[in-house]
Write a structure and sequence with these properties.
- This protein is mainly α.
- Among the domains are: 45 residues; 40 residues.
């Protein structure tokens, strides 16, 4: 199935091929066809190698999967299993990871790496709370022997490993 975009590209290739057959310089062909000089050079090279001007099957930016029905079915699949990764979706659907990523962006999703966090049990939380309360009481009883530092940071937290892929 060839999309409308691919038909237009094929017509441009035929037009450039015909202009090259007339003997026009490549720069003039590029200006007339409103394409880059590299495209004209590529078509001229394929003509010299007698390969024709057609694309290889399966090459090019087809964008055939980005239609409304496919995006709707992909959205339903995501809602069904939101923790499935991009590459898992791509493997199940039989498409490339880049195509899947582009479809996710069209749907308004962002990719992120899920971090594994340390889970603190309820007993550990109670123990930490008791320690903090003892520390506050000790600081109230010995105001002259301590310097108080006020900070907006949490007490008794361990810094997590920084993963730069999570930075947006």
């Amino acid at each position: 199935m060839i999309s409308c975009d691919m038909k237009e590209q094929e017509v441009k290739r035929i037009k450039m091929s015909a202009l090259l057959d007339t003997g026009l310089p490549q720069a003039a062909v590029a200006k007339v066809a409103k394409v880059g000089i590299c495209t004209v050079q590529h078509i001229a090279a394929t003509k010299r190698a007698s390969k024709g001007h057609e694309r290889k099957p399966g090459s090019g930016n087809h964008r055939q999967v980005s239609n409304h029905t496919f995006l709707k079915s992909l959205l339903e699949r995501i809602v069904e299993n939101p923790k499935m990764s991009l590459w898992q979706h791509a493997r199940v659907l039989g498409m490339s990871l880049n195509t899947n990523r582009r479809c996710m962006v069209e749907l308004g999703f962002e990719s992120f790496v899920q971090r594994k966090q340390q889970l603190i049990s309820e007993a550990a939380r109670q123990w930490q709370l008791a320690r903090v309360k003892k520390l506050v009481v000790w600081m109230k009883q010995n105001p002259a022997s301590t310097e108080q530092i006020f900070s907006g940071e949490k007490i008794f937290t361990v810094d997590q490993f920084h993963n730069r892929r999570n930075d947006c």
